[in-house]
Amino acid sequence: MLKILVTDPISEQGLQELYSSGEFEIIEKIGISPADLLQTIGDFDALLVRSQTKVTKEVIDAGKRLRVIGRAGVGVDNIDVRAATKAGILVINAPDGNTITTAEFTFSMMLALARHIPQAHASLHEGKWERTRFTGVELRGKTLGIVGFGRIGTEVAKRAQAFGMQVIAYDPFLTSARAEKMGVQVATLEETIQVADFITVHTPLTKETRHLISDREFSVMKRGVKILNCARGGIIDEAALLRALEEGIVAGAALDVYEEEPAIANPLLSYAQVIATPHLGASTVEAQVNVAVDVAGGLVKILRGESYPHTVNLPALTPETRKKVEPFVQLGEILGSMAAQTIRGGVQQVQIRYEGEPAQQPADAMTRSILKGVLSHFYREEVHLISATLIAEEMGVEVIETKQPRHGTYANLIEVRLSGDQGTVAVAGTVVPGHGMRIVQIDQYSVDIAPSEAMVLTWHRDQPGVIGHVGGILGEAGVNIASMQVGRQEAGGQAIMMLGVDREVDEAHLKKIRDTIGMDRVLYVELPTS
Ligand SMILES: NC(=O)C1=CN([C@@H]2O[C@H](COP(=O)(O)OP(=O)(O)OC[C@H]3O[C@@H](n4cnc5c(N)ncnc54)[C@H](O)[C@@H]3O)[C@@H](O)[C@H]2O)C=CC1
Ligand SMILES: O=C(O)C(=O)COP(=O)(O)O
Q1: Which of 443, 462, 490 is the last residue of a domain?
Q2: Ligand 2 pocket by Cβ (under 6 Å)
Q3: Nearest 5°: phi and psi at 363?
Q4: What EC number(s) has UniProt assigned to this enzyme (predicted)?
Q5: Does residue 74 sit in the same domain as residue 201?
Q6: Half-sphere exposure in the Cβ direction for 299 (13 Å, CA)
Q7: Model-wide pTM > 0.95
């Protein structure tokens, strides 16, 4: 039975999805220590976390059986996604379930910041009645700068507009058409933070967004600006925020997330102008049910071999697109594998040409599959669809894709051309509806043969008797020939023979074939046909 480890608090309703399927053994070890996690993870096929568990490279390396990591929420910065990708482990999340909750939370923080509610509450609890000390400001008429205009940023903008605020936003993916539709001004980061009275960040934490707001950015802000971070600790440089508070640039900050969590000894917490919560943005009953149900459903699907839309390290396809690309994904791996087994020496470049039908589809899944087929013959470890692109990049293999409309015999065609230190090889194939895959070209030779799990390829001079002779040797080896195809450019010239065989051919008999008169090269290849 597949085993799922749960290490952060996940809503019961989500876990119920897993338990009720009856297909998995579920072990809950909430708050497991990093050392225990390293000890334990090796027995599990899936890991389910929120933001507390740090899924480091060490954890991933120790997760020998791990196939999928599920994140009940949005941010995956607590997971070493690159290491997971390299290891062929799928990372999935649940980005839709906590958007409204987090937007509402951000807005609550903005109101609290504008009206000093936490400070006034604390003062009254201390027995003080300080009515003038906590005079605030209205949101109406103020400008809100939103950095990161994705799901949450967009919902925060809608709420701000309802409060009569002007919204200016910076997001590299925000088009002016969308901004206009939303009634939002699109701007650069600098413009956004320069004019805003309130600034809120809603990007993920990545290499690019770490310390996106630092000393330089604080220096251009309006004096007395109020700033919020309900996204991720580290997007705002905490040391720079401290300096900006000291200098009076920032009049107030609302923080839900910190560079280090739990943020027990964070110096920012000693500032009266800083209001702070312990990473509560997504903590509502509704959001926790939503994300847990979504991600648990995703784990079930992935472990059953089905698809789930929110894959972090593998582009997701709609069911219709998946149906269309699936045959080409299979063909791609076979072509890649065939090309890799026929090229002499190593591979430095993979050129892929999609023609006709596959050219109309997103190439990613097909390209990954081709790379898997190619790299599996050169890489020391197993190559997965998830890891193929990253491994090609790490091996320094250049990948070039081209797409073109149908212009020849075939309604669909994929050509894989490999180049390396000792030469080039090109293999092309097509999918014939109702008849399956066909290999239709090897280098300069046109052929037409169904790929089979085991094949013998010979390059020889076109002359009488070769086919019979090779057939005789295979017969002597007890190897049945299931299919055969010969290609040549001209009578008596160079030719190729491709034989689909029912089982492996041993080295001794391959050598006998090699010793046949006129034979240039003989290869036994195995293709990933199943
Ligand atoms: N405090 C909490 O409990 C919660 C925090 N979050 C955090 O909020 C983040 C955003 O969540 P969603 O809006 O759902 O994600 P999203 O993916 O819908 O939006 C993120 C946006 O940031 C933009 N972005 C990326 N790099 C950028 C850059 N360098 N500069 C400006 N914009 C950039 C993207 O284009 C995208 O539009 C999550 O990644 C997570 O870290 C999410 C939920 C709860
Ligand atoms: O979804 C996110 O990115 C969050 O930050 C929520 O984190 P949590 O699941 O509450 O630990």
Answers
A1: 443
A2: 50-51, 73-75, 98, 279, 281-283
A3: -80, -20
A4: 1.1.1.95
A5: no
A6: 34
A7: no
Task: Point out the catalytic residue in the list 71, 159, 279, 384.
Answer: 279
Kindly indicate the confidence band of residue 47, based on its pLDDT and cuts at 50, 70 and 90: very high
One domain, residues 60 and 119:
no
Which ligand lies nearest the alpha carbon of 96?
Answer: 1
| Mean of per-residue pLDDT scores for the chain | 96
Phi/psi of residue 335, each to 5°?
-65, -40
Q: What is the DSSP string of 93-129?
A: E-TTTTHHHHHHHHHHHHHHHHHTHHHHHHHHHTT--
Residues with CB under 6 A from ligand 1: 73-75, 95, 98-99, 102, 147-153, 170-173, 202-205, 208-209, 212, 230-232, 256-257, 279, 281-282
Say how many Å lie between the CA of residue 82 and the centre of ligand 2. Answer: 20
Query: ipTM higher than 0.90?
Result: yes
Instruction: With respect to residue 281, please indicate whether it lies within any of the assigned structural domains.
Output: no
- 127 with 103, same domain: the answer is yes
**Residue % of the chain over a pLDDT of 90:** 96
- The reply to whether 155 and 303 lie within a common domain is no
Whether 232 is catalytic is yes
Minimum CA distance residue for ligand 1 atom 8: 231
- Range(s) of the domain holding residue 496: 451-530
Q: Please give the distance, rounded to the nearest whole angstrom, from the Cα atom of residue 92 to the centre of ligand 2.
A: 14
104 and 253 share one domain = yes
- Read off the pLDDT of residues 104-156 as tens digits, 9 standing for 90 and up: 999 999 999 999 999 999 999 999 999 999 999 999 999 999 999 999 999 99
Q: Which of 96-105, 400-409, 481-490 is modeled with the greatest confidence?
A: 96-105
* Residues 6+ positions from 21 with CB-CB distance below 8 Å: 300
**Cα 98 to ligand 2 centre (Å):** 8
Mutating to test ligand 2, I would choose from 7, 51, 290 the residue with most ligand atoms within 8 A of its C-beta, which is: 51
Residue 282 lies in a domain: no
Residues 85, 120 share a domain: no
- Looking at the domain assignment, is residue 367 inside a domain? yes
Q: Is 279 a catalytic residue?
A: yes
**Three-state DSSP state, 312:** coil
Distance 172 CA to ligand 1 centre (A): 12
Q: Are strands 412-420 and 349-356 parallel, antiparallel or unpaired?
A: antiparallel
Number of domains comprising the chain: 4
Same domain, 506 and 395: no
pLDDT at 373 over 90: yes
- Ligand 1 geometric centre to CA of 81 (Å): 16
**What pLDDT was estimated at residue 489?**
85
Instruction: Give the CATH number for residue 75.
Output: 3.40.50.720
